[in-house]
């Protein structure tokens, strides 16, 4: 019976401490908290909770518990004083302050009595006398406080009593119980053990009365803490429950009474501590707590105000240390669902989607065309937020296979796909990784992610417009410079042409004349060809296409490099195409020259020419330094983005545009440290003739 009673007393003090602390924190954090003297009430409850914790942990007779009891009584007294200001009565009740001050002084005398008890610890008679003084001072405090409580309630207006009755009842219960407790202690020359142990019940009663007073009507009875406070409080309750269980079991083991009791107790504490260290920091546990709190304490899962503030802060983050906008866009969506990582896919020029940014997932291998054009059309037309788990289970119908390619489904970490739409146009798709505590997405997730997706799409569209405007401005500046260059070269060509004509007419030496004429004509031809190239960017200019034998052209170019670097033609199938031979040669020379510059002196560059249905395929391979995926996506084919000192940065861009003008396509694959592969696809002559005939027929019908 003794052990059970001790455990009950311990748990009651612990429950009183937790209840007082929770109510105190709620009063501090909740702005809707109604009632008089909110701050003073929160302070008094906090001090009472600390005292209750000390009694539970150190015992009611410990010095620290007795010292904290003084601070707790001062807290209740301060709360009592602040209650008088509820209806401004303190302005006309001047005597209140001296009475409260005197009572506080009486309670502070307990510190002097503690010092005296320590000084005369070996003298029993002195100890009895000091305790009598301590009981007397406490009786004075209780009597004075009860008088003030009586005056507080009786002297209040009828309307004020509605707010004051519960706090007054709580203070009255505390001081009335202490009055009886210290009366019996004074008469019996000692602390009554049973009454001292029942003080926890009085504390619980006072907390309950204060809670009713603070939440005194139906509107205030709705529990509306912030989500962060609810999560932290719930975590605190779990930790407190864990500590209670641990202490109960440890105390039980200590009463085994055998020689192994202490060993069992120590072993249990060690194992419980290790388990706590392993489990409590778990992100999975935190996720479970957050979901549980949201489900059971709130009508909605999300705190929309907090989510919007966090989203705005993430997107608006600036400075040299801030991540690029595309990465921040992924993070802004991932933060909503607690996803640890994510990726952003943006449209390619042919309609598919490619990887544009990663956030905390650098190891994932993504194909060049991450999502085909059919999948991109599905997201744009349906605006569907895709849960990949539903696709894996086969429970989602109507979703084309191209919207969730095999490489996405193969990785179990890939969890959800959120489309970003701007004016019903797909700007991108965000792929979210599975959160530590995975769950089924519901209507609230879909609504919030859809709104966030539209907002993000507007930011990305704005950045794309800014980039396009900047590129147009740079092109304008480049075109103005080229116009001056073309004007000067045209004048030079005219002068040289005139000089050649004059020399032909007036030179007397036939041999000199012939040599001069030949030289000048060659220079004139070169300058005229240069003017033609400078005037042609990305279009054929209406020029008639030539019939080109690709193998011969490649052998000619490889021969030009024979003295400088080894360029090897590995395969040379018979491939004839139609296009501008000069432009094609210019593009091939640029790609081969880049491969040569990227390779070591003894590392050959390989050319591979073969046919596939309808197309000639030419590959330019090197084993040089290679390029990063980020460089290929953002800089390789962007004009004026050169990695060479003094370069214009238009070589790769011009090569791609020249090949496109002939109906072809230029792709690139590269790995850093391994090398680069440029892949040219050009329609064969038969395919080109068929396309031209179909185009002409369409124009005639129109």
Secondary-structure map:
Elements: H1 2-29, H2 38-58, H3 63-83, H4 96-119, H5 124-154, H6 158-188, H7 193-197, H8 199-214, H9 227-254, H10 261-279, H11 283-297, H12 304-315, H13 325-337, E1 342-347, E2 353-359, H14 373-382, E3 386-387, H15 388-393, H16 406-410, E4 414-422, E5 425-433, H17 443-506, H18 510-534, E6 546-549, H19 550-560, E7 567-572, E8 576-579, H20 581-598, E9 605-612, E10 615-622, H21 629-636, H22 651-661, E11 665-671, E12 675-683, H23 685-701
Parallel strand pairs: 7-9
Antiparallel strand pairs: 1-2, 1-5, 3-4, 4-5, 6-8, 9-10, 10-12, 11-12
Characteristic terms for this protein:
single chain; 702 residues; alpha+beta; Rhopdopsin 7-helix transmembrane proteins; Beta-Lactamase; 4 domains; five-stranded antiparallel sheet; five-stranded mixed sheet; 23 helices; 12 strands
What can you tell me about this protein's structure?
Helices cover 63% and strands 11% of the residues. Mean pLDDT is 77; it is low at 31-35, 217-225, 229-233, 257-262 and 537-542. β9 and β10 form a beta hairpin. It has 702 residues and is an alpha+beta fold. Strands 2-1-5-4-3 form a 5-stranded antiparallel beta sheet. A 5-stranded mixed beta sheet has the order 7-9-10-12-11. A two-stranded antiparallel sheet has the order 6-8. α9 (227-254) packs antiparallel against α10 (261-279). It has 4 domains: 2-223, Up-down Bundle (Rhopdopsin 7-helix transmembrane proteins), CATH 1.20.1070; 225-299, no CATH class; 312-469, 2-Layer Sandwich (Beta-Lactamase); 546-701, Histidine kinase-like ATPase, C-terminal domain (Heat Shock Protein 90). The chain crosses the membrane at residues 7-28, 40-58, 64-84, 96-116, 128-154, 166-188, 194-215, 236-257, 263-280.
């Amino acid at each position: 019976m003794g052990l059970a009673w001790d455990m009950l007393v311990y748990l009651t003090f612990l429950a009183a401490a937790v209840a007082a602390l929770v109510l105190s924190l709620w009063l501090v954090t909740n702005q809707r908290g109604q009632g008089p003297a909110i701050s003073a009430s929160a302070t008094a409850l906090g001090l009472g909770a600390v005292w209750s914790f000390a009694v539970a942990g150190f015992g009611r007779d410990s010095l620290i518990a007795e010292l904290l009891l003084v601070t707790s009584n001062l807290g209740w007294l301060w709360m009592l004083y602040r209650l008088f200001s509820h209806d401004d009565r303190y302005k006309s009740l001047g005597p209140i302050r001296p009475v409260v001050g005197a009572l506080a002084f009486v309670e502070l005398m307990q510190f002097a009595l503690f010092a005296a008890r320590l000084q005369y610890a070996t003298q029993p008679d002195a100890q009895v006398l000091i305790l009598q003084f301590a009981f007397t001072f406490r009786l004075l405090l209780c009597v004075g406080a009860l008088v003030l409580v009586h005056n507080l309630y009786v002297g209040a207006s009828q309307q004020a009593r509605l707010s004051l009755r519960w706090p007054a009842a709580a203070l009255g219960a505390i001081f009335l119980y202490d009055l009886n407790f210290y009366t019996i202690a004074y008469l019996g020359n000692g602390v009554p053990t049973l009454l001292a142990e029942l003080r926890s019940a009085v504390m619980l009663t006072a907390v309950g009365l204060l809670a009713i007073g603070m939440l005194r009507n139906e509107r205030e009875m709705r529990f509306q803490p912030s989500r962060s406070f609810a999560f932290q409080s719930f975590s605190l309750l779990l930790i407190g429950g864990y500590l209670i269980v641990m202490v109960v079991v440890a105390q039980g083991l200590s009463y085994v009474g055998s020689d192994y009791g202490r060993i069992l107790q120590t072993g249990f504490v060690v194992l419980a501590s290790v388990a706590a260290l392993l489990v409590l920091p778990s992100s999975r546990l935190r996720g479970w707590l957050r979901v549980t709190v949201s489900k059971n304490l709130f009508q909605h899962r999300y705190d929309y105000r907090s989510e919007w503030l966090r989203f705005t802060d993430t997107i608006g983050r600036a400075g040299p240390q801030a991540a690029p906008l595309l990465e921040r866009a992924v993070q802004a969506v991932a933060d909503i669902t607690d996803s640890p990582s994510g990726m952003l896919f943006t449209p390619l020029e042919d309609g598919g989607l490619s990887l544009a940014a990663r956030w905390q997932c650098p190891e994932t291998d993504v194909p060049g065309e991450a999502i085909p054009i059919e999948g991109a059309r599905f997201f744009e037309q349906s605006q569907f937020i895709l849960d990949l788990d539903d696709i894996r289970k086969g429970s989602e119908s109507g979703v084309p296979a191209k919207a969730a390619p095999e490489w996405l489904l193969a990785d179990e970490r890939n969890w959800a796909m959120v489309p970003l739409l701007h004016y019903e146009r797909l700007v991108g798709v965000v792929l979210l990784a599975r959160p530590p505590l995975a769950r089924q997405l519901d209507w609230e997730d879909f609504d919030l992610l859809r709104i966030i997706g539209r907002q993000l799409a507007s930011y990305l569209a704005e950045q794309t417009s800014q980039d396009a405007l900047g590129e147009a401005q740079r092109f304008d500046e480049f075109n103005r410079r080229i116009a001056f260059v073309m004007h000067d070269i045209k004048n030079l060509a005219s002068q040289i042409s005139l000089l050649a004509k004059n020399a032909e007419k007036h030179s007397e030496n036939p041999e000199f004349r012939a040599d001069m004429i030949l030289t000048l004509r060659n220079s004139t031809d070169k300058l005229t060809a240069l003017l033609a190239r400078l005037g042609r960017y990305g279009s054929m200019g209406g020029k008639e296409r030539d019939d080109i034998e690709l193998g011969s052209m490649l052998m000619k170019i490889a021969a030009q490099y024979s003295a400088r670097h080894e360029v090897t033609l590995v395969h040379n199938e018979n491939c004839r195409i139609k296009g501008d031979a000069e432009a094609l040669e210019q593009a091939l020379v640029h790609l081969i020259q880049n491969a040569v510059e990227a390779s070591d002196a003894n590392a050959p560059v390989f050319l591979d020419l073969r046919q596939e249905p309808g197309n000639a395929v030419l590959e330019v391979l090197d084993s040089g330094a290679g390029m990063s995926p980020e460089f290929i996506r953002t800089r390789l084919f962007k004009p004026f983005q050169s990695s060479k000192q003094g370069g214009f940065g238009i070589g790769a861009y011009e090569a791609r545009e020249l090949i496109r003008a002939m109906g072809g396509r230029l792709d690139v694959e590269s790995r850093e440290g391994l090398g680069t592969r440029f892949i040219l696809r050009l329609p064969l002559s038969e395919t080109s003739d068929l396309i031209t005939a179909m185009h002409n027929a369409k124009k005639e019908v129109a």
